[in-house]
Design brief:
This protein is an alpha/beta fold and about 290 residues long. The chain has helices spanning about 10, 55-60, 65-70, 95-110, 120-130, 150-155, 155-170, 170-180, 185-200, 205-215, 220-225, 245-250, 275-290; strands at about 15-20, 25-30, 35-40, 45-50, 75, 115-120, 135-145, 230-235, 255-260. The protein is about 40% helix and about 20% strand. It has a nine-stranded mixed sheet, with helices on both faces. α7 (about 155-170) packs antiparallel against α10. The longest helix is centred in the middle third of the chain and has 13 residues, at about 95-110. The protein is globular and about 50 Å long. Residues about 1-15 have low confidence and may be disordered.
């Protein structure tokens, strides 16, 4: 087990930065927490934040990076505890600290402001960052994730899902909760997911469980959400389990542009990250905000 001592300085918010290249991408070190990222293309910077239990490869695999890098500088990184980034196993290393890796990375790359797009967990991170570091945004795009209210951040199901990941590498209840109503996975599907997870050498189930437990430190109040002034696009599918919370976010922020995609779910074959409408919406929204 990795020692927690190497992360203590980061938890205090005293961050020193060392960046260096590696064959599989690039890395930046925030006081002992090494973050893996890719940096492609030229132009205005767009930072992509992936979903929970996923990696930056979700943006590559779905073609979002290839599309956007034609006209933008596209940066995507593995959130701490995920992919090729370091994996602290204490929940205190996540939550707000996970969110603050975004401005730290901008500082390391000498970028003052960027467009930021977050999916699911990444969208909750965007919601928190809009209250913590709004000055670092050009625009924000929240994909299938409205941010965590205090009640959602302390939902008992988080501990259930974290415990399942610790034990089985994947959370059965999380998979079923996020699946569209017409495509609930079978037990055979679940067992395949378990086998694939255990075969993934980059997946640290204890760190991912700690990341989930860190959700308690991601709470954003309705008052904070209402006060956001950064131009924001919210986008979600009609089959997504986050639909109601995204609609509530739109109610709190009537100024927010809101797009609803018919027949689109959170994950799976109809998952929103793989839909061409998503990247088109991102492009159109950014273009609409240019003076």
């Amino acid at each position: 087990m990795k020692s927690f001592n190497r992360y203590a300085a980061a938890l205090l918010g005293l961050v020193s930065v060392t960046a260096y290249a590696a064959e599989e991408g690039k890395y930046v070190d925030f006081n002992g927490v090494k973050i893996h990222y890719i940096d492609r293309g030229k132009g205005e910077a767009i930072v992509l934040l992936h979903g929970g239990t996923s990696t930056l490869e979700s943006w590559v695999r779905t073609g979002v990076v290839a599309n956007l890098e034609k006209d933008f500088r596209v940066i995507a990184f593995d959130a701490r505890g995920h992919g090729k980034s370091d994996s602290p196993r204490d929940p205190k290393a996540y939550g707000r600290q996970q969110a603050l890796d975004f401005p730290r990375l901008l500082d390391a790359l000498k970028i003052e402001r960027a467009h930021i797009v977050g999916f699911s967990l990444g969208s909750s991170t965007v919601a928190q960052l809009l209250t913590l570091r709004p000055e670092r945004f050009l625009t924000a795009v929240q994909v299938a994730g409205a941010g965590r209210s205090p009640a959602a951040a302390n939902d008992p199901r988080i501990e259930v899902e974290a415990a399942e990941i610790e034990k089985d590498c994947v959370s059965r209840s999380r998979i079923y909760r996020q699946a569209p109503p017409h495509a609930k996975p079978t037990d055979e599907d679940y067992q395949k997911r378990v086998a694939a997870c255990r075969a993934d050498v980059t997946f640290d189930q204890l760190a991912v469980a700690a990341s989930l437990r860190g959700y308690k430190d991601q709470a954003v109040t309705p008052e904070q959400m209402k006060a956001v002034k950064v131009p924001t696009l919210g986008i979600v599918g009609t089959l997504d389990h986050t639909l109601k919370e995204m609609q509530e976010l739109k109610r709190l922020r009537p100024d927010m542009k809101f797009i609803l995609l018919e027949g689109v779910s959170h994950t799976g074959p109809t998952g929103i990250q793989g839909k061409p409408e998503l990247v088109s919406a991102i492009r159109e929204f950014i273009a609409s905000q240019r003076k």
